[in-house]
Design brief:
Helices cover about 25% and strands about 25% of the residues. With about 325 residues, it is an alpha/beta fold. The strands form three sheets. It has a seven-stranded mixed β-sheet with strand order 7-8-9-10-11-18-19, covered by helices on one side. The chain has a six-stranded mixed β-sheet with strand order 1-2-3-4-5-6, with no helix packed on it.
Length: about 325
């Protein structure tokens, strides 16, 4: 019997079920782990995603033929049995479990282990083979507890507000922006949002995800009526004409890449907050151990280094080239 999943020029493929998982080129049937644009792409004949991820995917891709599945529900597709399990990356994100002839493979998509209070918490899934991202697969990447980062962000905001300045915080419009909103102390001042963020907020609020009240920054909005505001916007908006409307302001970026000083300098922001929706070095190892898998396939990130380290730990590990993104929050389409 061949492998449960194979790796093709269109993406990860299941021969027994005749479907792809997060394919990067058009295919007949695509199982989608989450709505970020490097995983959920247009042009497929039919889509399957969790009921929690589907509204955002529809919002981003428009009218597509998409079926939904609940977390933990099993579905028979051809000769394969599939189920989706929480990945903890962003709201609705999933790992995909595929079983064929008693052999189980899991595709992680993107994931993090630490609960963030907003999205569904990562669930370890036992398997024989685990396809894992390793965006931050170096020992330097270790995240502080979320509560400490939240305290730093709120203190920074309060200090800026006391000086009469707005605080502009760059964060990816799906996932990171909403996570930050849930961490803010609304008592500090008004919270304003870029259109890309607010449109995503509306989709997630309609699903029942709890977010604080926000005000959409439109051309007509009187910014003087919102002194000391926190402004959440895509990183690409920092330094733009849109951002200059706020006058004297402090800027920051929230990303795992802020762990590297060189990246902080290149972003041109006043401050960097280390907050990632991906697993850090320790979480990657924990997730892999908890699967019980002997075969590990490393995708997007520090793949070569991470796979070599896994081999020293006794795993059958190898690198799989993919076309998923490797730069978190690098632009409007990053993870």
């Amino acid at each position: 019997m061949g492998d449960v999943l194979t790796f093709t020029d269109r993406g990860i493929y299941c021969p027994a079920g005749d479907f792809h998982i997060d394919p990067w080129r058009p295919v007949a049937r695509a199982l989608i782990t989450h709505g970020h644009s490097d995983h959920a792409r247009p042009g497929h004949g039919a889509y399957l995603a969790t009921d929690a991820a589907t509204p955002v995917i529809r919002h981003r891709l428009g009218e597509i033929a998409i079926d939904t599945i609940r977390f933990g529900e099993t579905r028979r597709i051809g000769g394969a049995t599939v189920s989706f399990h929480p990945a903890g990356h962003i709201p609705g994100s999933a790992q995909v479990r595929v079983e064929v002839g008693g052999e189980v493979w899991v595709v992680s998509g993107d994931y993090k282990l630490a609960p963030d209070g907003l999205c569904e918490t990562f669930e370890p899934v036992r398997c024989h083979a685990f396809i894992t991202e390793c965006t931050f697969g170096l020992p330097v990447f270790k995240w502080r507890p979320q509560r400490e980062v939240a305290a730093d962000i709120n203190s920074w905001w309060a200090a800026n507000a006391a000086e009469g300045r707005a605080s502009i915080l760059g964060a990816y419009s799906l996932g990171k922006a909403q996570r930050l909103l849930a961490l803010l102390d609304p008592a500090t001042g008004p919270i304003l949002t870029h259109g890309a963020v607010e449109n995503t907020n509306a989709v997630l609020r309609a699903q029942g995800y709890a977010l604080p009240d926000t005000t959409h920054v439109t051309p007509e909005l009187d910014l003087k009526a919102h002194p000391g505001a926190m402004v959440i916007a895509p990183p690409s908006a920092l330094g733009s004409n849109w951002a200059r409307r706020f006058g004297p302001a402090r800027t920051a970026v929230a990303s795992g890449w802020m762990r590297l000083r060189g990246v902080r300098r290149r972003r041109g922001a006043d401050r960097g907050f280390v907050l990632s929706d991906h697993a850090d070095w320790d979480e990657l190892h924990t997730a892999i151990r908890e699967t019980g898998a002997e075969r590990i396939f490393a995708t997007h990130g520090y793949t070569e280094i991470f796979a070599r380290w896994l081999v020293t730990q006794g795993f059958d590990a190898q690198v799989v080239p993919t076309e998923f993104g490797t730069a978190e929050d690098d632009a409007e389409d990053a993870a």
